[in-house]
Design goal:
binds (3R,4S,5R)-3,4,5-trihydroxycyclohex-1-ENE-1-carboxylic acid, magnesium, ATP-binding, Rossmann fold, alpha/beta, binds adenosine-5'-triphosphate, aromatic amino acid biosynthesis, 8 helices, EC 2.7.1.71, binds magnesium ion, 51% helix, amino-acid biosynthesis, 177 residues
């Protein structure tokens, strides 16, 4: 959903790698908080009028990161709900700078659970070749960045999405909100 509901900032911003459960947990959190869920990947696809793999293919990753920065800026200003960012949003300095002071939660997942969950068959352009090795390299580069922007880090390994949602609410002290 784009541009609906009360203006931002969001109550929860989720970051983390593909398979961390941002969408699954984000939807649960939105239900629990009685607010809307929004996903910047969805916003980008709506604005560009094509799927993300096509944007990567046609215009390249740097252009995608620019579109993503603009989508994050818009969503932070216009969405007082739960917001999930794309898995690689933290790679961009400008996007990270937008996240200062916000209730950002890093959903952590290890390689084992990530592979099991994602199945690595979905259209994820950065994991298209040798997914396990790519995922490891991607996490080595990104873990410090996810941690840098996060107010809280929540592990998702061996936890149900409901338990993860619970832990996020606890970490942000939103239980009685
Ligand atoms: N805690 C969990 N335990 C088991 N399975 C999970 C958990 N969280 C998510 N999943 C499953 O893992 C898959 C990926 O989850 P999801 O799409 O929510 O991840 P994501 O972080 O949004 O990924 P992407 O970055 O690709 O958007 C889904 O099939 C989902 O049902
Ligand atoms: O990890 C990444 O870099 C990406 C994750 C997805 O959410 C999309 O934003 C896109 O496929 C890039
Ligand atoms: Mg998702």
């Amino acid at each position: 959903m784009t541009g609906t509901g009360p203006a931002g900032p969001p109550l929860v911003v989720l970051v983390g790698p593909p398979g961390a459960g941002k969408t699954t947990v984000g939807r649960l959190l939105a239900d629990r908080l009685g607010v809307a869920y929004r996903d910047t990947d969805g916003d980008i696809e709506t604005t560009a009028g094509k799927p993300i793999p096509e944007i990567f293919f046609d215009e390249g990753e740097p252009h995608f990161r620019e579109l993503e920065r603009a989508a994050v800026r818009d969503a932070l200003a216009g969405h007082r709900g739960v917001l999930a960012l794309g898995g690689g949003a933290v790679m961009d300095d400008g996007t990270r700078a937008l996240l200062g002071g916000l209730p950002v939660v890093f959903l952590e997942v290890g390689l084992h659970d990530a592979v099991r969950r994602v199945g690595l068959d979905a259209p994820r352009p950065l994991l298209a070749v040798n997914p396990r090795q790519s995922w490891r390299q991607l996490m080595d580069a990104r873990r410090p960045l996810y941690t840098e922007v996060a107010r809280a880090v929540v592990s998702t390994d061996d936890r149900t999405p409901e338990d993860v949602a619970d832990a996020v609410l606890d970490a942000l002290q939103l239980k009685d909100a």
